[in-house]
Amino acid sequence: MDEEVKVLDRELVKLLVRRLELSKNIDEAKLRLLNVEAYNNLKDTLIEAGVSEYYASLFAGLYIATLSRGNSVKIAYLGPRGSFSEEATLKIFKNMKIVLIPQNSISAVFRVVEEGDADYGVVPLENSLEGSIGETIDMLAETNLMICGDTELRIKLNLIVKPGTKLEDIKVVVSNPYALGQARRFIETFLKNTKVEIVSSTAEAVKIAVSTDGVAAIGSEYAAILYNGEILLHSVEDYRENYTRFIVIGRKPLIISNNTSNSSYRTAAIFIVKHEPGALYKALQPFAERKINLTKIESRPIKGRPWEYKFFIEFEGNLENVNISQSIEELKKRTEFLKILGSYPRIP
Could you tell me the pTM of the whole model? Predict the structure, then answer.
């Protein structure tokens, strides 16, 4: 049996090298399409063989990154290694050769991209249970970066511990505020006598838990695998329909596929209106008149102006659409400040 495994491993290496050699003679645009097809086939095959969807997606993404040629694209993301942002990054850039640059905060991701040390960044925008990430919206307003794409991940949370730890041994549970909020009922029911501590990310929580007695983390299966943790309980999120949207930020548009349809695009903007009755209604009126579907509106405090707010809006369609361009022109006339964050594709 051991010898058969070794033979298979050698054959896999030979096939990978052969695939790399053949790729040299294929047009880059065609190669990207082939890599996307290979990614989907490999992921589906691994899932059918019993590998979890998380691990199958990540393995397939790393495999395609190995096969991709050309200059590496540098991607900053909210780290450390094993974070949901890293999973989103591997999903978004699955057909490209990338270098991962983990950062310890959302603002750090923006700063690295704005200063040119990374080509793009990946940060969370909103969670279907806990709502928007205020820091992301604030940084979109404060920097010169645009939104270049977005995707969503199904968030599966697990209780992860140092191997050999039992449920009754747990004295502290750690994670980031959003994951703790998404598993609030679970913690109150099964870990009601434990201390809850907040850290910067789910991956950081897992790193702490697997190296500390009596500590459990709320985190991903990927992080558990990466840091050799034991999953004590799977799927501890309070609601199964738990998704997080991630956006790609950058200085130039992101070309993921040559056949992205305009119907899959969204456009976003941030604006400030006069602090007077009806100002927000008037600002949004052009979109309603042209039947443009607003998919998101969020208010954020304006620093230095207590109880006044800036607004983040997102709507379906592309800036190339006449109705949208006309609505933007009308919006300019009805606002004190307007920043268009760009039109961007939804990445499946």
Answer: 0.76
